[in-house]
From TrEMBL, chain A:
Pathway: Carbohydrate degradation; 2-deoxy-D-ribose 1-phosphate degradation; D-glyceraldehyde 3-phosphate and acetaldehyde from 2-deoxy-alpha-D-ribose 1-phosphate: step 2/2. It catalyses: 2-deoxy-D-ribose 5-phosphate = D-glyceraldehyde 3-phosphate + acetaldehyde. Keywords: Cytoplasm, Lyase, Nucleus, Schiff base. The active site is at K218 (schiff-base intermediate with acetaldehyde), K254 (proton donor/acceptor). GO terms for cellular component: cytoplasm; nucleus. This is Deoxyribose-phosphate aldolase. Catalyzes a reversible aldol reaction between acetaldehyde and D-glyceraldehyde 3-phosphate to generate 2-deoxy-D-ribose 5-phosphate. Participates in stress granule (SG) assembly. May allow ATP production from extracellular deoxyinosine in conditions of energy deprivation. Interacts with YBX1. SUPFAM superfamilies: Aldolase. NCBIfam families: deoC (TIGR00126). Its EC number is 4.1.2.4. The gene is DERA.
UniProtKB/TrEMBL annotation, chain B:
This is Aldehyde dehydrogenase family 16 member A1. It comes from the Eukaryota. It comes from Suricata suricatta (Meerkat). Interacts with SPG21. Signal peptide: none annotated.
Amino acid sequence: MSARNLGTELDLSWISKIQVNQPAVLRRAQQIQARRTVKKEWQAAWLLKAVTFIDLTTLSGDDTSSNVQRLCYKAKYPIREDLLKALNVHDKGITTAAVCVYPARVCDAVKALKAAGCAIPVASVATGFPAGQTHLKTRLEEIRLAVEDGATEIDVVINRALVLTGQWEALYDEIRQFRKACGAAHLKTILATGELGSLTNVYKASMIAMMAGSDFIKTSTGKETVNATFPVAVVMLRAIRDFFWKTGNKIGFKPAGGIRSAKESLAWLSLVKEELGAEWLTPALFRIGASTLLSDIERQIYHHVTGRYAAYHDLPMS
Amino acid sequence: MAATRAQPSTREIFTTLEYGPVPESHACALAWLDTQDRHLGHYVNGKWLKPEHRNSVPCQDPITGENLASCLQAQAEDVAAAVEAARTAWENWSGLPGASRAQHLTRLAKMIQKHQRLLWTLESLVTGRAVREVRDRDIPLAQQLLQYHAVQAYTQEEALAGWEPMGVIGLILPPTFSFLEMMWRICPALAVGCTVVVLVSPASPTPLLLAQLAGELGSFPGILNVISGPVALGPILASQPGVQKVTFCGAVEEGRALRRTLAGQGAELGLALGAESLLVLTETADVDSAIEGVVDAVWSDRSAGGLRLLIQESVWDEVTRRLQERMGRLRVGRGLDGAVDMGARGAASHDLAHHYVREAVCQGAQVFQAGDVPTVSPFFPPTLVFDLPPASPCTQAEVPWPVVVASPFRTAKEALAVANGTPRGGSASVWSERLGLALELGYGLRVGTVWINAHGLGNAEVPTGGCKESGSCWHGGPDGLYEYLRPSGTPARLPCPPENLNYDTFGLAVTPTLPSGPETGPSPAAPYGLFIGGRFQAPGARSSRPVQDLQGTLHSYVAEGGAKDIRGAVEAAHQAAPGWVSQTPGARAALLWALAGALERREPALTSRLERHGVELKAAKVEVELSARRLRAWGARAQAQGHVLQVAEQRGPVLRLREPLGVLAIVCPDEWPLLAFVSLLAAALAHGNTVVLVPSGVCPIPALDICQDMAALLPAGLVNVVTGDRDHLTRCLALHQDVQALWYFGSAQGSQFVEWASAGNLKPVWVNRGRPRAWDQEAQGAGPELGLRAARTKALWLPMGD
């Protein structure tokens, strides 16, 4: 992954004057989906690229080592080899960007990936995922344990109460501590935007998270009622751009939750390209948290290569 | 462009992640052109009309220059044939119950739905606009327009009682306007029972296709006729018997020329001119969203014009940086490509923009251009012009598409002064998260449409139009309907060739008047002087004109007003305007009622003045009584102004505001010397205008009597009354650039002159063409027509959400 974000001193003037107009952002979000599309070869290439951005995720109560193992295998071989050969990209090393599991499953994932002989990073959610309503001490301990088990990326959830009550210093301090607990592991901060109340809060929380040293900011846990939406993304991407302009640090962006179709994933790619530029379209700076998206992308690739729609049994399950 | 390069492989794109071409197939548009053998005529009375021996012009793909078809140019006979078809159809169509017309419009909406792909590919192909905009915005809006107006037709008998359709409407459209401009205007016209002849510039086939779709509904073939020909056919269209109104959209200078040509002709003229818009970006704005507003306004193929961008100085650097970075991401290409922001508009638009930018640079401006733009000719890159000196000619000129001219402002007050300091009055948007500031600017801008924190929204229910040189013609909403209605019982307009009036000399000189015997007027003597700025003043010419009574004997003298007096009166009215506009409707009503009381107290004197003028005692009493009642009625109506609209695609209201015209000049008729004067005055004041009146020429004394009360009751300058030679005063008022509207009730020649002279500042005028009006009748003397004429609409969009 890219250079770490060391964060900056807390500077509340960066968020004090910000204005986010919700109806205007809604319109922008709507337009972006209509104004850019890709077809044919471009679509296939973009979809393959999207695969490399996926944090292949399983976050269920019934996860066991067997389905985590299967997930890891799919992460290594996301698209059928013959399809990749047909497109002449089989030597591009296309895998998903990471696998993402609960802390208790990190060991399983690390073991499975080691057995498969690949260096795909394991990401773990932490800090009382998904609600974040546990003591700070246990939340920090959770990060340390996950890192000990071999997770190299930690997806933490923020304490929404601090945002809703405007305690920005406290939020900054908490994320700072998360960052410290991560050690060498990358910190992805989940803002749980569906529970922040307003887009202005989304912008402010994004900025605080970046100042505190997050390597990624992530839209949602996938467990809230509102998941990754384009309006929220527009605001977060603008915050990332502002932070880049102020500090020169490129922070990553990860939408998660509810992204299921190949078409949607293309819209997310063009959204990032439009708001931040093509240099953000790398696994170091852009991830998509998803579990079922991959199979739809594989189906589209299948159709592009063969001209036929795939039956369910044509493609291996994840 | 990607298309011209060798096709990259998936492997390469995987690395570059570039955009590729997303061509929209236009095979169906070509197939449709083939059905006409690539030879388009006119569509008249439900049939294609392809007369022989006509010139034809090629219809070209604006990007490749490929000839798509040839289009016949209409001649006078073709225009006459189209008008004749519309006139025949009108007899049937206007007599239908509204419900039947509603049904027909709904069928047309469905027809468009069924053939929408053909419509959008054809429109994008021939205009070069981005297909996304046509497909996702224009086509749905066209259907929405038909549906909205179908509902209006359905409720017409009830909601628009007292109004009747005008008759045959002529619509003139220039080449740069989309077919939507036609839909905005034909829908209300057809809904209320008018029939339409559309004159489109040659080589724009979409209106022809629409006419064909309407014709193929079978019934009522002649209600929509489309002929293609040059704008120069406009006067011929206007002079056809049966044509009641001509609506023109296009460039300001063309509109001005048409206004002059059509002065004194039968048909009424509605103008919708210019396409420039304005965006005010304050320091309290969501800057990134405001920049998307700029993109919506000029670089997304939504509007036909350029943009004037006012940026608060404190955020100038930040805004220009972000704007330039955003411009870099714009994609320009063939309109039929599904992934471009902006297409091309053909050589004429390109040259216009090119010329403007070159001039701006010569005058000292900085230019920034960016975006992914093909370098070949018809494409013009998104352009930002700044540092243009305020006094340079380019600052005054209309900004063409796709240019943005940015200039700074310091305070809200200055923003208003700069924004209102142009002759244009189309649309504007205000960007601020502070509600108070946004509303202050929104109310203060002198334009037809204001969007708060949005730009370029449109809806069938919202009236859209302009003021000042943008013309005073409306489309959409209730105002759009009234454009094609007249009060029931108004006689139809007959084509009359304009009189050979010498505009240079009309009313130029005043015949000198000499003492002509002793005054026989009663005591107390009538007040003498011009009522300007709240007091009686001696006329600048220091001379007087005699007023005779019925027997022809000298009654008294009134002051002889002239150009200087008019200038003073208009100045006084302007000074009084801000105070009067800011009065609440309640306060206006109170003053009108107070004036009514004063008038009643003066009843004996006024009655005897009227009697002296030959009015019977009983009738004179009625006139005075009715005058007082008019003041009270308009006072009461002052309270009910404007309303709130709720539109589909936005949360939050759209306010339909009724704003005063400003300084309104009124030349009162000779008849009904008191009643007509009061009726016109009351309507004007109730709507917040300040007025300069020329009272009845034969009997000006009652008006001057009331001035004595107005001196005591009303703020100085609110009402100014100038007596004198009517033609001369009319001339002065009509040619005055700072008179914002003019009502003229007098001779046919005077009417013609007023229409001709109004082309100067394109002020809205209302003339009677020498026809008397029944001022004592409720409909003609105090009907809704007066209220409609006495104010202009502004639509204020207030999107909400957090």
